[in-house]
UniProtKB/TrEMBL annotation:
Keywords: DNA-binding. It comes from the Bacteria. This is MerR family transcriptional regulator. Residues 12-82 form the HTH merR-type domain. Signal peptide: none annotated. It comes from Pedobacter lithocola. The keyword Cell membrane does not apply. CDD domains: HTH_MlrA-like_sg2. The keyword Nucleotide-binding does not apply. Pfam families: MerR_1.
Length: 111
C-alpha cells in the first residue's frame, strides 16, 4: 500500500510566510490589519505577528474582494459587515475549485 501524504497544518504562520503566500509586501498586510477588523494576528513577546489559519482565510477573503472583484476598501468593509457568512462560504467554494483545478492540471500533465 503506497504512503499517503497528509496535509500539514500549522498553528501559526510568520509574516514572511504570509507575504510569500500572497506575493505582497509586509506593509500591505499590516495596512489590511489596521483597516479590517476581521484580521487579528497574534503578536509574540518581540512584537512579531503570528497569523492563524483563520487569519489566512480572512486575508484570502480580503484579497479576493479588493484585488479580484475590484471593491474599494470601504466597499469591502461594508460587504464583509453585511454578508460575512456568505462571503466566507464563497471563499470556501473558491478554495475547493482552485484545488480541483490544480489536480486537473497535474493530471493533464501526467497524461
Amino acid at each position: 500500500m503506497p504512503y499517503k501524504e497528509r496535509d500539514i497544518n500549522k498553528m501559526y504562520y510568520t509574516m514572511g510566510e504570509v507575504t510569500e503566500m500572497f506575493n505582497v509586501n509586509a506593509s500591505q498586510i499590516r495596512f489590511y490589519e489596521k483597516e479590517f477588523d476581521i484580521l487579528q494576528p497574534k503578536k509574540n513577546k518581540k512584537g512579531n505577528r503570528l497569523f492563524t489559519p483563520e487569519d489566512i482565510e480572512n486575508l484570502k477573503i480580503i484579497f479576493n474582494l479588493v484585488d479580484e472583484k475590484g471593491f474599494t476598501l470601504k466597499g469591502a468593509k461594508e460587504h464583509l459587515k453585511n454578508n460575512k457568512s456568505g462571503v466566507k462560504e464563497n471563499q470556501k467554494i473558491i478554495d475547493s475549485l482552485e484545488k480541483l483545478k490544480g489536480f486537473l492540471v497535474n493530471l493533464s500533465q501526467e497524461l
